[in-house]
């Protein structure tokens, strides 16, 4: 999400746009949305994106409208060192995801694979889904 709002180029932005037009599914949980809001409304991300807090919240509202809402019924902590990574993994597992898209592949891939979830970078994920979109 951070890369998607900070840069209008790249796979992260394309994946966010695909999720917003409901071409792909994005799974979120309440803790994950709270984390997105806390991180994305930091001054450094607002400055880099050129967005105001209100505009960033409008993006988050749009994400919340189209995303698959995942209820965290089971927690498998601790699997990872970073609690923020735990909520990402738990959302993916509880949501029945088959892919977890992150720049943090190194930390998440072993734990995710234990649940049968492939871990991909945004670039790898975009390569998988870009077929319906214009080729570069």
What does this structure look like?
It is a single chain. The protein is mostly helical. Helices cover 56% and strands 7% of the residues. It is built from 8 helices and 4 strands, in the order H-H-E-H-H-H-E-H-E-H-E-H. The strands form 2 sheets. It has a two-stranded parallel ribbon. Helix 7 (105-113) links the parallel strand 3 (99-101) and strand 4 (118-120). The protein is globular, with a radius of gyration of 15 Å.
Number of strands: 4
Q: Structural class, from helix and strand content?
A: mainly alpha
Give the end-to-end Cα distance, rounded to a whole number of Å.
22 Å
Biggest sheet strand order reads 1-2
- What level of helicity do the residues show? 55-70%
- Integer average pLDDT: 92
Strand content: 5-15%
Report the uncertain regions. none
How are the SSEs placed, and which strands pair?
Layout (H helix, E strand, L loop, with lengths): L1 H5 L4 H10 L6 E2 L1 H11 L2 H7 L3 H14 L1 E2 L13 H12 L4 E3 L3 H9 L4 E3 L1 H8 L7
Parallel strand pairs: 1-2, 3-4
Helix pairs in contact: 2-8, 3-5, 6-7
Condensed summary:
The protein has 136 residues and is mostly helical. 56% of the residues lie in helices and 7% in strands.
């Amino acid at each position: 999400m951070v890369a998607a709002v900070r840069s209008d180029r790249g796979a992260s932005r394309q994946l966010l746009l695909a999720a917003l037009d409901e071409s792909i599914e994005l799974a979120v949980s309440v803790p994950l949305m709270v984390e997105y809001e806390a991180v994305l409304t930091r001054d450094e991300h607002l400055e880099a994106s050129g967005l105001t807090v209100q505009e960033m919240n409008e993006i988050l509202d749009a994400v919340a409208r189209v995303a698959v809402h995942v209820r965290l019924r089971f927690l498998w902590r601790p699997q990872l060192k970073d609690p923020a990574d735990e909520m990402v993994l738990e959302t993916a597992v509880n949501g029945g995801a088959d892919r977890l898209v992150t720049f943090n592949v190194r930390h998440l891939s072993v734990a995710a694979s234990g649940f049968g979830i492939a871990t991909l970078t945004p670039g790898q994920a975009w390569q998988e889904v870009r077929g319906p979109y214009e080729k570069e």
